[in-house]
Amino acid sequence: MFDAANRALVVLSGPPGAPSTITTFPANGPARSVALPSPATAMTADGSGAVYLATRGGYLRFDVARGAAERVDVPGREATEFTAIARRGDGRVVLGDAGGGVYTLAADNTVSAELHVFARVDALVAQGDTVFVLDRSQTSVTTVDPSGTKTEHALRAGQGATTMAADSAGRVLVADTRGEQLLVFGSDPLILRQQYPVRGGPYGLVGSPRLAWVSETATNSVVGYDLATGIPVEKVRYRTVQQPNSLSYDDEADTLYVVSGSGAGVQVIAGAGR
């Protein structure tokens, strides 16, 4: 994730089940790595200096400026394997688990609402107070209403959706890796607005003010698409580090970050949108 408040890229790393590490890469100054108190599976940011990470039994809140993490336990969920996390527009944290549950937390971090209709919750994103759920096993995208107790709409997402991201224009981007395509959903209501072939194993996603970015893990490339018309239009393409699994973007500096999933490092592309 990119934290605009501290002008820093925040990278989560570590093999599944092993201790996790957060590394911050400031625009100026050396990188700093911090060991987390428990393995983390997913993260989201509030844009104001805090990063939230899903973990077993609750979540971690990481202060980017201080480089410190604090654990927040969810009462009664000590054994729950949380696999996804999002932060709604009203600031409430939403967690998803390996058993297909979605949990909306109250201000005191107790579960105020829960929903169990999915096979597994692989990713969560929020547009306002509406939460979007990606279920890879059902290759579906589903919206959860602000009450957190019911689904609003559900759509199949290609042949094998793997990742999902929300952009600032109110859209939800989904990489259909098996079907080799980019899916662009409108969020109010949920509707598939654009569907475009992306050869080469689309996986990493991030939105920016002008372009939607998609990485191709089979070709080690990243492509910027203009979504302003009825069909995505390729505007720029860059070669990347090996296995470009994760993308992040600094809107102010027009800088794209590409993070390798194989240990090949972090690539910084300045002026990427140009």
Task: Describe this structure in a few short sentences.
This protein is globular. The chain is built from no helices and 27 strands. The protein has one domain (2-204): TolB, C-terminal domain (Neuraminidase, 6 Propeller).
Gross morphology is globular
CATH superfamily: TolB, C-terminal domain
Q: How large a portion of the residues is in β-strands, by DSSP E?
A: over 45%
The strands making up the biggest β-sheet line up spatially as 1-2-3-4
User: So what's the CATH class?
Assistant: Mainly Beta
Are there runs of 5+ residues with pLDDT below 50, and where?
none
**Mean pLDDT across residues:** 96
Q: SSE order in H/E notation?
A: EEEEEEEEEEEEEEEEEEEEEEEEEEE
CATH 2nd-level architecture: 6 Propeller
Our count of helices gives: 0
Helix content: under 10%
General description of the model:
- This protein is mainly beta.
- The protein has one domain: Neuraminidase.
- The protein has strands at about 1-5, 10-15, 20-25, 30-35, 40-45, 50-55, 60-65, 70-75, 80-85, 95, 100-105, 110-115, 125, 130-135, 140-145, 150-155, 160-165, 170-175, 180-185, 190-195, 200-205, 210-215, 220-225, 235-240, 245-250, 255-260, 265-270.
- Strands 1-2-3-4 form a 4-stranded antiparallel β-sheet, with no helix packed on it.
- Strand 17 (about 160-165) and strand 18 (about 170-175) form a beta hairpin.
